[in-house]
Design goal:
The complex is a heterodimer of chains A (365) and B (656).
Chain A lengths: L1 H9 L5 H21 L4 H23 L2 H25 L1 E3 L2 E6 L4 E2 L1 H19 L4 E2 H20 L3 H17 L4 H13 L1 H7 L2 H11 L9 H14 L10 H4 L11 H34 L3 H25 L17 H19 L7
Chain B lengths: L2 E3 L3 H36 L1 H12 E6 L6 E2 L5 E13 L1 H4 L2 H9 L6 H13 L6 E4 L4 H9 L7 E10 L7 H4 L1 E4 L2 H9 L11 E5 H5 L1 H5 L3 E7 L5 E8 L6 E4 L3 H9 L5 E8 L4 E8 L13 H7 L10 H4 L9 H10 L9 E3 L2 E2 L8 E2 L7 E3 L1 H6 L3 H11 L1 H9 L22 H8 L5 H7 L10 H12 L3 E3 L4 E5 L6 E3 L4 E4 L4 H14 L7 H4 L7 E7 L22 E8 L6 E8 L4 H18 L1 E4 L4 E4 H12 L18
Parallel strand pairs in B: 3-11
Antiparallel strand pairs in B: 2-9, 3-4, 4-5, 4-6, 7-8, 9-10, 11-19, 12-13, 12-24, 14-17, 15-16, 18-21, 19-20, 22-23, 23-24, 25-26
Classes of the chains: A mainly alpha (365), B alpha+beta (656).
Chain lengths: 365, 656
């Protein structure tokens, strides 16, 4: 009895449909990681631990009332921004990029924090100004977005910068930014492409060039794309069967349990498996957006929708990268790839989505 | 600052819903794009990626076949494989070679030549393939390397197959040798569509039987289909097509006879060919000086290479089929036979030899080798004493065209078709040839000297042996052939090579009889080879020949002592025995040997004595040992299987 009530209390803010869909996706993840690690028990156990921790975080996040989040938003953003500035000044250089900050007891990557802090602060800001939105408010919102994005671009970390920019853009777009302005910015972006090309680092340019023609560097940077495309293509309609992917199990597929885990699934389960996975992602996104639309406050609606759309962008960019239509940007397949940070960040996001959708009665409108 | 607009929460929510739906539609569009991409890769392009994935994971590792062995007629091993340990380095795994090699030199002997060869192979190699640094490691060296192996990454001791020629220089020109596959060989193999079968092979036959029977000896390369990972390491054996060993080749050659035929040359240069007249089988084929074919398995150092290419000695040249010499007086039995067959002479027709011959209306004297002439000479005597005048006259009567027609039946001027590469066709001249070659007409005087085998005519020792076989065989000419049988490596089943008839010359038996008797007279008292024939226990038919190397001026005397060694005459001798039922035909040529009677004929005698009587010349003891003794000795050493006798069945498809 007590246990039952405790369970009800704990799960009060979880959405059963979304939870079930996420559970399915995590099941897919377990299958994929088991195959990608070739039955390496340690890695699988570590993955299980990551999932457990991340689910716990989601559960906890679902209990945080949205007002608490709103209070927390400016602080999280400020800390994140300071840390990014600290990275720019004192950061450690790893692989030619200054992304890490060594705080003595822990090494952190502040850009990870910004993935949540940016939509959080923008949703908060637009919520504050919702009664009387002026063009200045949008300008400020854009500056709030541009600061961290600019800093992360400088590290340089193009992938993360673009994804954070996307999450911020979703908030501003859903918050009602003039479509004309958006169109103007888009046109400007396309027009300034040559200039951006000029500002890109060599390795970034190379990635784009290699994406356009992977065979130009088959043993170097193009190797990842070529091998993952072979893995996907050779999977065929029905795949080679679980644990039977030759690209995966003969070491041809790089980073197969992390960024390229989609190739493992594509090789072993084929087009049918891929389409089922796309369907699962679609269902999650649909349910997530439905929940977001149910949120009683503008803050909740903007934040939840932005998090769900960002989740979608991550999934799309990863699958596009692995199947060779997008450059290699180092983005994991959300909730499938092995790796604790991503798992926790994504499920934390879904915890927030469920929170804003379920904490109705506590919010004044 | 102007407020853009005031919106109610309801308006705000409607706008939000609209924009969310728009975002959702875009998302669905992107998902469809992905689905389309997957369809393209996994359905439309499936075959392509499937193939790529298969290629990725499957490697064919060639398994080279063991090369067939070569045996003589008694089953003695002439060429075989043996396994030796090699020290090899895989460059990719080895780290700094400049440190590693001196380190290895402390454990095993490594010569600068080894290092040089290694560096050269390294430059051609692929990094992940091991490169040989030292071959033929001793047991002790293998042990020392094994002990130190843990601190020598990338260093491997492997067992490899090497080729060995136990008879060294004795068999060099017959058996030949194998050598590394060169760029030219690769082109050749590609042109013949044999490249696939040589993947994994490092050597191929370069000369002798090793070259001419290369396709038989090589065998068929097997393959191991292995699954590999991205690093090229074999993970699992998927399938195996075992290699098929090459055929063993059994020759007509007799190692004992070959040994004797080699020894008789001593320091002389020249060639000897001994044929079995019953089938054209090559019993011995010697070219001197010889060389050690074992040298070619490794790379050869500069000094040895220069020695092998000595401009005068030229040991690599197989003089038996590539040396062309004027046949000299050895042509006389054929000329005499022509005289009989063409009705120009009867055995009893005689001439009075004044010591020279002049063409009608000319004062030019064609001199006999005997200044004052041989007196009254009939056909038999003309051969026995090798009277030049007799043949000057006969040739001038016969004319060059008839001479050319008749002699060409005996194989002069064309290749005999022996199953060895590189044979030259010699030269049997006629006016047409001279016009083509020099754009000059034929002079009657050239016919005269052609009658004694001088002038333009050139023949190889092999051609002389083949022509002699035609007389010994009453006109039946077989193609000289080394191969006696080829043997399937696993079952041991023998396939006997049939004799190939080159031609049957229609000759009257009574004419042949006269010529044979005359040739026997050569080795009997009064004959030019009487000394060499003394005490022969069989009817020894022969003909001496001495071919001038430089022209001697009219009236000048030939002084052997004053002529530099390399301007001395070539000594020739052709022979068969026993005359009534020949079992062996021999042609000997000794470069700058002086006279046929003095140098070449005794050599032929020793070879025939060995073959017919089993007597072995023994320089050290001044006596003879029997052939059986030695043969047994060799057999014990080699312990090779003696092939079972059998009837000829078929000829190998592309024997040359």
């Amino acid at each position: 009895m007590l246990a039952e009530r405790l369970f009800k209390r704990l799960t009060a803010h979880l959405d059963p449909v979304l939870s079930g869909l996420l559970g399915l996706l995590l099941g897919v993840s377990l299958i994929a990681v088991w195959s990608a690690s070739a039955g390496n028990g340690d890695k699988f156990v570590a993955h299980l631990v990551n999932i457990t921790v991340a689910l716990t975080v989601m559960l906890l996040a679902s209990h945080i009332p949205p007002q608490r989040l709103m209070q927390f938003a400016p602080l999280a953003y400020a800390v994140g921004l300071l840390l990014l500035i600290a990275v720019a000044l004192f950061g450690e250089v790893v692989n030619g990029a200054r992304r890490w900050l060594d705080l003595g007891f822990i090494r952190i990557q502040p850009s990870e924090l910004m993935r949540l802090a940016v939509p959080l602060v923008l949703a908060w800001y637009l919520h504050q100004k919702q009664e009387s939105l002026r063009s200045l408010d949008y300008a400020i919102a854009i500056v709030l977005l541009a600061l961290p994005v600019g800093l992360i671009l400088r590290q340089p970390d193009l992938g993360t910068a673009l994804l954070i920019a996307a999450s911020g853009f979703f908030v501003i777009y859903l918050g009602g930014l003039s479509l004309k302005l958006i169109a103007a910015v888009a046109v400007l972006a396309v027009a300034s492409a040559p200039l951006i090309w000029h500002l890109l680092h060599d390795y970034q340019r190379r990635r784009i060039l290699i994406m356009l023609d992977p065979s130009s560097d088959p043993l170097g940077a193009g190797y990842h794309i070529i091998q993952s495309t072979i893995a996907v293509g050779s999977g065929g309609l029905t795949g080679k069967g679980w644990m039977k992917g030759t690209q995966t199990h003969l070491d041809f597929l790089p980073e197969r349990s992390t960024d390229f885990i989609f190739a493992v699934l594509a090789e072993e389960f084929g087009l049918i498996g891929n389409l089922l996975l796309l369907l699962l992602y679609t269902a999650i996104v649909y349910r997530g957006l439905t929940l977001a639309a149910r949120a009683p406050t503008l803050f909740g609606r903007l934040l939840a929708a932005a998090l769900v759309l960002t989740f979608f962008v991550y999934a799309f960019v990863n699958m596009g990268m692995v199947s060779g239509i997008l450059p290699v940007v180092g983005v994991p397949l959300p909730l499938v790839s092995y790796g604790g940070t991503s798992m926790v960040t994504v499920l934390l996001g879904f915890g927030i989505v469920m929170s804003v959708a379920t904490h109705k009665k506590l919010v004044k409108t | 600052m102007k407020v853009l607009r005031y919106i109610t929460p309801e308006e705000s929510f409607r706008q939000y819903r609209r924009r969310l739906e728009a975002a959702g539609l875009i998302a669905i569009g992107l998902l469809l794009l992905l689905a389309g991409r997957f369809f393209w890769l996994q359905v439309v392009q499936f075959e392509r990626y499937h193939t790529l994935a298969e290629n990725n994971r499957i490697a064919l590792v060639p398994a080279p076949p063991p090369r067939g062995a070569i045996y003589d007629r008694a089953g003695r091993v002439l060429a075989q494989n043996y396994t030796a340990f090699t020290l090899e380095i895989t460059p990719d795994k080895a780290g700094d070679l400049d440190q590693l090699i001196p380190e290895l030199a402390k454990l095993v002997e490594i010569t600068p030549a080894d290092v040089k060869r290694f560096r050269r192979a390294l430059a051609e190699g692929k990094g992940f393939e091991s490169v040989i640094l030292r071959t033929r490691l001793s047991e002790e060296e293998v042990a020392r390397l094994a002990v130190n192996r843990y601190r020598l990454p990338g260093v491997e001791v492997r067992a490899r197959q090497f080729r060995q020629y136990p008879y060294t220089d004795v068999m060099a020109h017959v058996v030949g040798y194998i050598g590394r596959i060169s760029a030219r060989d690769k082109e050749q193999l590609a042109a013949e569509g044999r490249t696939a079968n040589y993947r994994g092979s490092e050597y191929l036959g370069k000369a002798g039987v090793e070259a001419s029977y290369e396709p038989w000896l090589h065998g068929r390369t097997g393959f191991e289909k292995v699954e590999i990972d991205a690093g090229g390491r074999a993970v699992r054996l998927l399938a195996r097509t075992p290699p098929v060993a090459g055929y063993n080749i059994h020759l007509h050659l007799d190692a004992g006879l070959q040994q004797v035929a080699t020894e008789v040359f001593g320091e002389h240069r020249g060639a000897l060919v001994a044929l079995d007249p019953s089938n054209g089988g090559v019993l011995a084929l010697v070219s001197r000086p010889g060389f050690d074919p074992n040298l070619f398995s490794d790379s050869i150092d500069q000094a040895t290479w220069e020695e092998l290419n000595h401009p005068l000695l030229r040991p690599l040249i197989n003089r038996a089929l590539r040396g062309v010499y004027p046949p000299g007086s050895t042509i006389k039995p054929f000329m005499a036979l022509a005289g009989l067959e063409l009705g120009l002479r009867t055995p009893s027709d005689s001439i009075q030899d004044p010591g020279y011959f002049s063409l009608p209306g000319s004062s030019h004297r064609y001199r006999d080798w005997k200044k004052d002439g041989h007196g009254v000479v009939d056909l038999k005597k003309s051969i026995a004493v090798s009277c030049d005048t007799y043949y000057y006259r006969l040739a001038s009567q016969m004319g060059i065209e008839s001479m050319h027609r008749f002699l060409s039946q005996f194989g002069f001027g064309r290749k005999s078709g022996i199953d060895l590469e590189g044979e030259l066709s010699g030269l049997l001249p006629n006016p047409e040839w001279k016009r083509r070659r020099f754009n000059q007409s034929w002079w009657p005087g050239e016919t005269v000297i052609a009658g004694i085998g001088q002038g333009y005519m050139l023949a190889t020792p092999l051609q002389l042996a083949v022509a002699t076989m035609a007389i010994a065989n009453d006109g039946v000419v077989y193609a000289p052939q080394l191969i006696r049988a080829w043997q399937e490596p696993e079952s041991g089943r023998m396939h006997y090579a049939a004799a190939r008839v080159l031609g049957r010359i229609p000759l009257k038996p009574q004419h042949l009889e006269v010529i044979k008797q005359a040739m026997v007279a050569v080795t009997q008292p009064g004959g030019t080879a009487a000394a060499a024939g003394a005490g022969a226990a069989y009817a020894f038919a022969g003909k001496t020949g001495t071919a001038q190397v430089i022209g001697i001026k009219q009236g000048a005397r030939y002084d052997e002592k004053r002529t530099a060694a390399h301007h001395r005459d070539h000594a020739l001798f052709i022979a068969f025995a026993p005359a009534e039922a020949p079992r062996i035909v021999v042609a000997v040529m000794v470069e700058n040997g002086g006279s046929g009677s003095g140098t070449a004929a005794p050599m032929a005698r020793k070879v025939i004595d060995y073959w017919l009587l089993g007597k072995r010349p023994d320089a050290a003891h001044g006596g003879m040992s029997t052939r059986e003794d030695t043969a047994e000795e060799v057999e014990r050493e080699d312990a090779a299987p003696v092939p079972a006798a059998g009837e000829p069945e078929e000829v190998p498809g592309d024997a040359r």
